[in-house]
Amino acid sequence: MTRIFSGIKPSGHVTLGNYLGAVRRWVEVDQHRAEALFCVVDLHALTVDHDPARVRRLSRQAASLLLAAGLDPRLCTVFAQSHVAEHARLSCLLECVASEAEARRMAEYAERAGAARRAGRGVRLSLLTYPVLMAADILGYRADEVPVGDDQAEHVELARELAVRFNQRYGAVFVVPRVTLSPVGARVMDLREPAVAMGKSSASAAGVVYLLDEPEVIARKVMAAVTDDEPGVSYDREGRAGLANLLEILSACTGKEPQVLAESYGDAEALKRDTAEAVVEALRPLRARHAGLSADPGYVDGVLREGAARARELARPTVDAAYRAIGLLPPG
Ligand code: AMP
Ligand code: TRP
Q1: SS3 assignment, position 182
Q2: Is 305 helix (H, G, I), strand (E, B) or coil?
Q3: Of 13, 149, 249, 276, which has the most beta carbons under 10 Å away?
Q4: CATH number for the domain including 50?
Q5: Ligand with minimal distance to 193 CA
Q6: Rounded Cα gap, residues 332 and 330, in angstroms
Q7: What does the alpha-carbon distance between residue 104 and residue 129 come to, in Å, rounded to a whole number?
Q8: Looking at the structure, do residues 168 and 309 belong to the same domain, yes or no?
Q9: Cα 319 to ligand 1 centroid, rounded to whole Å
Q10: Is the CB of 200 under 6 A from ligand 1?
Q11: Which atom of ligand 1 lies at the shortest distance from residue 189's CA?
């Protein structure tokens, strides 16, 4: 059976980009058609300046939102990365397979390290090695597919290269995974800055819709989206990025093609109004379920505990095999 692995970082509040680019497909498609694992990758949230209490809170919230979005622990495994030691164990080995130059080439590293330096902050070593830990997340489970938004494609490509290299040097331990992208919503852009992706850690929240925003807040953010001065509505990703983003969000919510939607609108205001409504409606059931779950943190903790037990069982034999293959003495 196909095995799927993906993850979400508890480094900020979960956004509409996370939902449309990744989570929704995990819920609607992936958990039903494969053996799927979805991980709150909390160690990854420590790669930039962080507040311990906030990471703890966001980790539980991310898990609760995944369940509220519809991941079903009877169908898939939901767990926290730090609860399964195999991730860190394997990352150690993969750091001996990856090169420093390879890690430095990652666009996300260049971008985040640049931002940290510009702000006069240091760059944590873990930010550089982060894609190797991500490769360990994936390879430890011998995952076939990794459903992510397109910003993560370069990291999955690195995981593929490390799998191939390890297998060639030390023996066939790993499955070579492939990335799977959402047909729509693979890159939701910031509503105020349509040239940059909508992100958890954006400097301003004005262009970012969070899954737990109140409906009025969502409507206000969408109505204030930046478009352009040209009259009418057309779908042109390069020339009219703001409109294209709204059309893609509406498309992701309604299932209609952005091109077709563009033809049915005479002006941006009407498009914004319908998009705001579609987003509010798409998130309404999720908000309601989240409210129920957050009243019962014991349930979420229980799901994570059982998920970790299952994940450990799956990863341990592969990571043990990698330890033997690379030349480490088996424990007595
Ligand atoms: P992260 O917030 O980096 O933990 O991302 C979790 C998942 O959401 C990954 O698969 C990302 O590729 C995806 N994702 C994050 N931001 C966006 C966005 N703006 N558009 C589409 N997918 C996104
Ligand atoms: N790096 C991913 C992100 O920022 C999160 C992640 C960590 C992940 N490990 C993973 C995604 C393994 C897929 C598979 O979104």
Answers
A1: coil
A2: helix
A3: 249
A4: 3.40.50.620
A5: 1
A6: 6
A7: 9
A8: yes
A9: 27
A10: yes
A11: 19
Atom of ligand 1 nearest to the CA of 149: 12
CA of 130 from ligand 2 middle (Å) equals: 9
Residue type, 239: G
Distance from Cα 41 to the centre of ligand 2, integer Å? 7
Within 10 angstroms of residue 144's Cβ, the number of other Cβ atoms is 18
For the four alpha carbons of 49, 90, 178 and 1, in that order, the dihedral sign comes to negative
Of 180, 177, 182, 167, nearest to 144 by C-alpha is: 177
Ligand 1 centre distance from Cα of residue 148 (Å): 7
Look up the CATH number of the domain holding residue 239: 1.10.240.10
Q: Is 60 in the pocket of ligand 2 (CB under 6 A)?
A: no
Q: What is the pLDDT of residue 185?
A: 73
7 lines ligand 2 (CB under 6 A): yes
For residues 97 and 55, membership in a common domain is answered with: yes
In short, whether 61's Cβ falls inside 6 Å of ligand 1 is no
**Amino acid letter, 161:** E
**Ligand 1: nearest atom to the Cα of 151:** 12
pLDDT of residue 63: 97
Render each residue's pLDDT in the chain as its tens digit; 332 residues: 999 999 999 999 999 999 999 999 999 999 999 999 999 999 999 999 999 999 999 999 999 999 999 999 999 999 999 999 999 999 999 999 999 999 999 999 999 999 999 999 999 999 999 999 999 999 999 999 999 999 999 999 999 999 999 999 999 999 999 999 988 777 999 999 999 999 987 778 999 999 999 999 999 999 999 999 999 999 999 999 999 999 999 999 999 999 999 999 999 999 999 999 999 999 999 999 999 998 898 999 999 999 999 999 999 999 999 999 999 999 88
Instruction: Tell me, yes or no, whether 200 lies in a domain.
Output: no
> Does residue 122 share a domain with residue 260?
no
Task: Give the model's pLDDT for residue 202.
Answer: 78
Hey, which of 11, 39, 106, 200 would you mutate to test ligand 2's pocket, going by the most ligand atoms within 8 Å of its Cβ? 39
Residues 302 and 260 occupy one common structural domain: no
DSSP 8-class letter at 174: -
Q: Ligand 1: distance of its center to the CA of 329 in Å? A: 39
Q: What is the atom index within ligand 2 of the atom nearest the CA of 22?
A: 15
Residues 12 and 86 in one domain: yes
Six token digits for residue 253: 């919510």
Structural domain contains residue 186: no
Question: Residue 222's domain spans which residues?
Answer: 215-291
